Amino acid sequence: MSRKLNPSFSRFNPFDIGGIKDDKTREEVILKFVHSYEECINITQREQKTTELCQKCFSQIKISQLVPFDGCGHVLCRSCMIKHIAEQIEGPNPYIQCFFQECNNTLNNSAKLLHDGLITQKQRDVMEEKMVGKYLKDHGFSTCPHCNNPIPGNTQGNNNIKRTCAYCGNKFCYNCREKTWHEEFTCAQYKSYKNMAAWLRTLYENGMEFIRNTPNCPEISQNSIIQFNTQLLKNCNAMTRFSKMVSLNNFDVNNGFFTWHGSPENGVQGICNEGFDPHRRSGQAYGTGEYFGIQPQTSFSYCQNGSHLILTYVLNGNQVRTQPGFCYIINNPIDWNTSYCLPLFVISFRNHAAVSWLPENTHCFEKEA
């Protein structure tokens, strides 16, 4: 790479340097000397100037009022530097990056920044917390959500996400750092669970207990995958229709029961999103309405060659009729603006394959040995 030399160096002959026989070494010495000379010229020129351009607000600022970015020398006026540092601290990066886009230099000395009056103590605390967090993450550590004590990551033979802090003694989830250990919940399930309305949370808990204690059906109680219908948390039409029924008719949402519904594979997703369409009724042998099995075995045959049942919650009332030992018949309004039925869970049996359109945050009731 060619360099523009000072005119006083134009007659300089590198081969006149005595004692250096190796051409490469001689060239390195010369280039180093030339670079030093250029730096001296630049420093001299800067010292002769009284003002310089702030590289962010483009104002001419007295050199004494400019603040250099440590390590690279890019300069800003004091107010721009303070603003830039504050924006970096509030952002996602753990370190303060140079404002110059092509520069990879960063600042991590929070004590110096505080001493120089470029950050406040509160900003330093935030900066330190972010840097410590990055260090712990990079080295496989997490922190206890109760006391912030460092917790080592999963090591060989230690893949348990249920942890007990050695410092404060509290139990928590290492994976999502939830303060309450979510027994029998995956992390994603517990996050969804926390976002539920109180009544829906109760249905969730009672529904899981209902599935677990289903009598005389090991395909369900001991060998199944359970997925909560998370579309309900997005106010899908199934949720909207059920909620309208409760509010418009002053139903007690706790006065209901769980029941089973079997459907071919191409109908399961639509039911979870939209609810039970009264316009698709067929085979009304025991009266008008939607049919639900009292026992899961009854609903298996309605899945045809499929392998997914829907556990449904139904409001009690005059709309419910029972065919003893066989099924419930629920006469939902034909206009389908409201519904007595809420599809809560998809239960996978037979081929043990969860549905792909619900999160894979599943419960799995394994077959007992």
TrEMBL record:
Key words of the record: Metal-binding, Repeat, Transferase, Ubl conjugation pathway, Zinc, Zinc-finger
Pfam families the UniProt entry points to: IBR, PARP
Reaction(s) the record says it catalyses: [E2 ubiquitin-conjugating enzyme]-S-ubiquitinyl-L-cysteine + [acceptor protein]-L-lysine = [E2 ubiquitin-conjugating enzyme]-L-cysteine + [acceptor protein]-N(6)-ubiquitinyl-L-lysine
Coiled-coil annotated residue ranges, if any: none
Any single biological process term in GO: protein ubiquitination
Gene3D superfamilies: 3.90.228.10, Zinc/RING finger domain, C3HC4 (zinc finger)
Protein's name in the database: RBR-type E3 ubiquitin transferase
